[in-house]
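Hi, here's the filled form for the chain we discussed.

Project: internal
Contact: R.S.
Residues: 191
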Amino acid sequence: MGLFIQKAVKGALSKSQVATGYIVTSACVLLIACNLAVFLVSGCGALRQTPEERQRTAELIGQRLDARDYRIDIDYMIPLRGGGRAVSGSYSVRVEGTTVDSHLPYAGVARSVPYGGGKVLTFEDDIDRYEDTGWRDGRREVVLATDNDEDVIVYTITVFDDGHADIHVHCQNRDDISYRGTVSAREEAEE
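And the returned structure, exactly as it came back:
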């Protein structure tokens, strides 16, 4: 682009070449600006909730958390080492009463694991400890611990009033890992 302008100023290009280059450059800039505007406008509207909708969502999520009957569908993972990445498939953590059903991908270093890799974060087991802080500043934190015969695993789940959730998983024998996703009621997921 800079070379084109320099040649145009020095007269090395004809008037038609300068006009064509200017039109193409202007069209590219206009196209990029329009795409960016459409992307920003459509993205902002999809994320915005009215206060009433946000309150209703928070109430529904609160009921599920109180009943210990919820599922968090995962769409992003953040390993301790390396960059975060989007995940596809049916990865989730489900809490039902006194059990946790974990189906999570794992990327990280394992220090002491059974031959063949073991269960990692794909298992169903009883919850040994469950603590819920209740709603504070638009978020609710749940800490649950389980021992799946291979490792002691602690899930710290932060649920936001808009339905999004962050999960941090701490294992004794593996690197920590975090996930992001959304809370869904079990009935909605099974229909």
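Let me know if anything looks off before we file it.
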